[in-house]
Amino acid sequence: MSPFRTVPLGIAAVTLAATLWLAGTASTSAPVHAEANGSPALLTDPQVVGMRRLTEAQYRNSIADIFGSDIRVAGRFEPIVRPAHQLIASGARSAAITPSGLEQFDAMAREIARQVFDENHRAQFTACAPPDPAGADASCAGRTLAPLGRLLFRRPLSEQELALYVRIAGEGAGPTRSFAKGLELALGAMLVSPLFLYVVETAQPDPVRPGVMRLDDNSRAARLSFMLWNSAPNAALLDAAAAGRLTDQPHLAATVRRMVASPRFEQGLRAFFSDMLLFEKFDELAKDPVIYPYFNQDVLQALPEQMLRTITTQLLDGDGDYRELFTTRKTWMNRALGALYRVPVSQSQGWVPYEFTAESDRSGLLGLAGFLAMYSHSGRSSPTLRGRAIRELLLCQPVPNPPGNVNFTAVQDTGNKAMPTARIRLDAHTTDPVCAGCHKITDPIGLPLERFDGIGGFRTFENEAAIDVSGEMDDTRFTGGDGLGKAIAASKDATLCVTSRALEYATGRPSEDGELIERLEGGFAAQGYRLRQLIETIASLPQTYEVPTDSIKAGTTLVATRR
Amino acid sequence: MDRGKTGLGLMCGGAAIGVAALMALTGSLSMEAPARAEAPPRTLPAPPPGGVMGFVVQDFVPPVIQGMDACPKGTSPKVRDIYLASLPADERARLERKENEPELTKRWQATVFGADGTNICSQPDKFDRPLLTTVQSAHAGGLDLDGDAPGESCSHEEFTAPDGRTGIDNQEYRVMGCTLEWRGKDGIGGDLLTGMRQFHASGEWTQVILLRGVDSLENDDDVEVIYANTPDRPQLDSHGNFLPGYSFTISDKPPRHRNALHGHIVGGVLVTDAQDIKLAQTWGQGGARDIRGARTAYDFRHAKLRLAFQPDGSLRGLVGGYRPVFDVIQSPAIGGAGAALAAGIDCAGTLATLRKYADGISDPKTGTCSGVSSAMNLYAVPAFINDVPAPSARIAPAGTAHAGNKTL
Lengths: 563, 408
What we know:
In chain A, 50% of the residues lie in helices and 7% in strands. By secondary structure, chain A is α+β, with helices and mostly antiparallel strands. Helices cover 19% and strands 25% of the residues of chain B.
């Protein structure tokens, strides 16, 4: 079999085995088939304390940043499973790659490598000209692959690693009689390596606190870059890591300050909120086209973008108060959404700023169709789903799942003239005390949004009955979306929740340090709830880089390759 | 409209946004038979603040009135039938036998072509063909076009509209109203009705109407009307009806068709003053090769709109004007021999009939008319319309308002 078919995956498996061996976390349920042919040398000295799989966005952003946005990434990404009530950033720490998922990564890697070393691009990435373009050249291959490997693996390649990829380049150049083809093969192998597909975190003893381990400089560079820019660290950040500046607190703080001030921080903030607000659910959002003719593919694509634009405009452009995300009427509109909201859009293409009227009852994120449609059924609204989403996503208050034997007949009978509104139907449904317990938590904060149908369209009547939008949260009574938005904005749970989520996003694990979260929230409040400053604080915090003891003894990374 | 007012809606980026009459958007917009400017509807809501209303035209179709009285002998014969009718009875009977179909096909198709590669659709002037069967009934949809244009019309018989209006000029309907393409079969509209809906849904022909200065939907003596094309595609529901509430921007690229009209509302019906109206008409989509994407225009001379406001926020009514006779056969003429061979359309016979019944676009020297009175039913649903003023109006001195929008 040609080396082009076998080498990259073989290297991936070998590297994976080595990584797992060093991390001491190999899954017993998914045996790794790999020859231990000197592989432990691929990872040396630093102690591996965790591995986080790249998300699709992080993969795409990394490729675009390292090779240019004209390099096409085409393929299917295996989703990272979200642990219950946690972020995908936490799920990434225990995300496996199935054999079919690895095949997809392999196919993408080959295609990316082909583009990088095609005639149009190779000059940008080839550090030298080999004397014979039809043959191998170890020196030139090394000089070309070393900087690329450093960016892809987010640390300098070891001598053994570089030698391995140079050897692959040489073996590829021989049969193909092409130096560039050899580089292509070596780059393909790098791109399918777990060292690229996973952010491998390594630690060192904390010199200040004996017995405590902290992330080393290279791992800090990766953590900072993915947390703040949702992409791989650039050369400058890796230089700072190489110089040991990221373990130096003043330098670390200065670096973070620069990064959150960069326009690229928007990309990081978008990724954070996409994770916090479960945007992966948009991939499976569907509505009945007969009931909701305004819901179409254009609308579906616009829903998350409108929410993200609203978020970034409020939090970055105006450096605004996080709490106003629940009360602002300022948003963005495009043509497809304009029809859903029944508002004029002044241009046919693209997005325009828009401010809802006071009569719209649309207040902040909860008044946007993205939230309202997501937490509805395919043919009707759902105060319960909306209330639960508010509790879980915005207030970090998990709501139990309904029991398996619930009778939903009353709430599903939306055409019943005797029970014309969702409030009346839910009242009938919750006569069962088993149901009533949870519905008391969710419905009083979901019902105020009942002026918005299953896709977020405005209405004042359901089945010709006026809709009652009174609601209650934590003993505060209010009406409508406006009242709900103000209640959430006034809730300390909301600011505590985003604080804990930001900390979880940074570290890749939910924090159980309530005291730390309280302290961070206090600082957040003192800074006028400016999220940019909260994230800057978290990214500069020594605890963010502290390695929990359990990660050192027995990490939770389960990575499988099975052929 | 108070002429002292700007009459503009929301200003945004130099374009005036027509705020649609959205008071009844939640109401159903069921598809009905081709629209007619019937008696004023029951109760009309107040116009929106600012008096700006927008609409996108869903139906733009010939006002065919179904029923046997219009064409008692059936639809106009196709080329094949015309050929057969020209034969002696015995020969006709022989050729109509199934085994002789290839011979019949060869012979009638030969009549499509003339000398030097000409054919009856590409060069209809070069053929002498029988006239079409014309509409026999006294009723037609349309407008009285010559009532306020004395001296511009040639003598003709007038129709009475289904709603009782008299003096209706619609010679195009008289000529085309018995063709299979217009009348269809079994009381169902022909290809033209379904085809026109598709054209309007495609963004190729899509028409919008913007009203400014509407103070009352019942009576207003001064309304600015912009009747134009937009490149934006309407969105359809599962029944194929246009969804109200979308935004459309009037085309700013050539061929740009933006007709600025003046109208008045009486009894819930908007009527515009007579003026030439041009609108896009693209046959086929895509490039300009052969008939695909051939761009022509609806050219209504001395034209008027008559549109009735509906309680559900829509508009129903007509546009009428005189069309150059050749424009009526524009589509099959572009199709050439194919139109005659595949659809059996006798372009030469049609053109000759249109010329015979021409009643408008009179030559002042000869008094000869080269156009036919025409009308199209309109049904338009509420929409937001972004007006794009003419380039000259867009280069306004700094600090000036865009009031020029209304005077284009």
